[in-house]
Amino acid sequence: METRKRHRRIRKRRATIFATSLLALIIIVASFSIFQIEKNTQENQRINKLSQNLGLLYKNSFPTKNVTNTKIIAFSTKLTDKKGKIPNKNYQLFKEKLSLLDLKVNKQNAINALFVSPVMLGKTLKTSTVKTSTTQKSIKAVVLSALPKDNFLTHAQKEINQAKKQVSARDKEQNLLQKILTAITQNPTNSNLLTAQNTINKLPVATKNKENQALVAAVQKFYAGKKLIALTFDDGPNATTTPTLLNTLEQDDVHATFFEIGSHIAGNEALLKRQTADGDQICSHTWTHPELTSLTAPAANLEITRAATLITQITGQNWPFYRPPYEAVNQTVLNSVNMSAVNYDVDTQDWEDSTSAPVYSAAMAGAHDGAIILMHDIHPWTVAAVPNIIASLKQQGYTFVTVSQLIYDKAGAIQLHHDYFGW
Ligand SMILES: [Zn+2]
């Protein structure tokens, strides 16, 4: 009896202890879980915050210039600190985002180096500036090995190599251009002017305008304070009369402008080469000498350019000038071709004459600073009048120029679709 009672007591006590222990355990487990939940919430907040920061950075990074490699490295360091402290999948997610961001920034750097550079935009011109330009620095600064290995790398490598070649080629051209511009301030020969203009034409628009101004300034510096006059000869070349005229021009060291009829050139190529060698300017006077205003725009274009192309083939001269026969030009003609018309403001009307005296008188009567004098090298009396015209004009202090030299000096950079006719 006693034993049974004691056993019952013991069982009761054991049950109480078990229940108490169980309760305690439950409480402990519950507390721990609550602590864990709390801890996870804090971690999640931190993760969210980091995520937001990264997300913001990510969102704002491309294509704006706000994200730099420095910022990425800073974030990367922060993320490395979080390793082991945040769930691995989150860590990996951010790492992935970072590398993507890194790629974008490097891509942007590469793109900046290639396209958003001063040289590409033509902001820098002088050789010295180009050499130390941001572009070249940034092209060098694009560390390709730092870029992720994907198709972009191969593409970027090609683009950058190409850009480097372009910059190098442009650098050489700039060098050449600077030399020519310097030479032009000493003597603006037809050949130097043409080389300079053709070099400038290949430059980007912003650069082109600046260098055109430099070209004009060089020409104006040379001719400052001088009275300029341009002798122009139409309707040649002529195998009989033109050589005599060239003898005069060469002897008197005078450079003139010839507007040649394209269909007259065959067989007279040597004359054009001789004119070019002596420093004369040669331009188109159309192929068959039609009244351009009576033609359609494409027909006018063909008339002008057919002769111009042949002249370029023979002489290398590609001045964007033509003289419309009979002075006949209108907006349709001017718009028909990427060139400009060059007319005159002194007409000797030498085609009406048969002797030299009236040609001489007309030239001298019309002579003034900035004049473009019209004559024809197909008339023997005109050719015979030229030595006296030159002698008298020299006596009056005139400097003989080609049409291009006169345009640069009097009107500035060459305008297309324009009608020039003296000043
Ligand atoms: Zn003519």
Number of domains: 2
The unreliable regions are 50-66, 111-153
- What about the largest sheet? 6 strands, parallel
Determine the oligomeric state from the structure: single chain
Q: What's the number of helices?
A: 16
CATH superfamily of the largest domain: Glycoside hydrolase/deacetylase
Q: What letter string, H or E per element, gives the SSE order?
A: HHHHHHHHHEHEHEHEHEEHEHEHE
Question: Quick check: average pLDDT?
Answer: 80
Tell me the fraction of residues in β-strands, as a range. Answer: 5-15%
Write down the CATH topology of the largest domain.
TIM Barrel
Helix content: 55-70%
What is the terminal-to-terminal distance? 144 Å
Strands, helices and their partners?
Elements: H1 2-61, H2 69-82, H3 88-115, H4 118-121, H5 127-131, H6 134-141, H7 151-186, H8 190-201, H9 205-223, E1 227-234, H10 242-251, E2 257-260, H11 269-278, E3 281-284, H12 297-315, E4 321-322, H13 331-335, E5 340-342, E6 346-347, H14 356-366, E7 371-376, H15 380-395, E8 398-400, H16 403-411, E9 419-420
Parallel strand pairs: 1-2, 1-7, 1-8, 2-3, 4-5, 5-9, 6-7
Helix pairs in contact: 1-3, 2-3, 3-6, 3-7, 7-8, 7-9, 8-9, 9-16, 10-11, 10-15, 14-15
The structure holds zinc ion.
Pfam families: Polysacc_deac_1
Transmembrane segments: 15-35
Keywords: Hydrolase, Membrane, Metal-binding, Transmembrane, Transmembrane helix
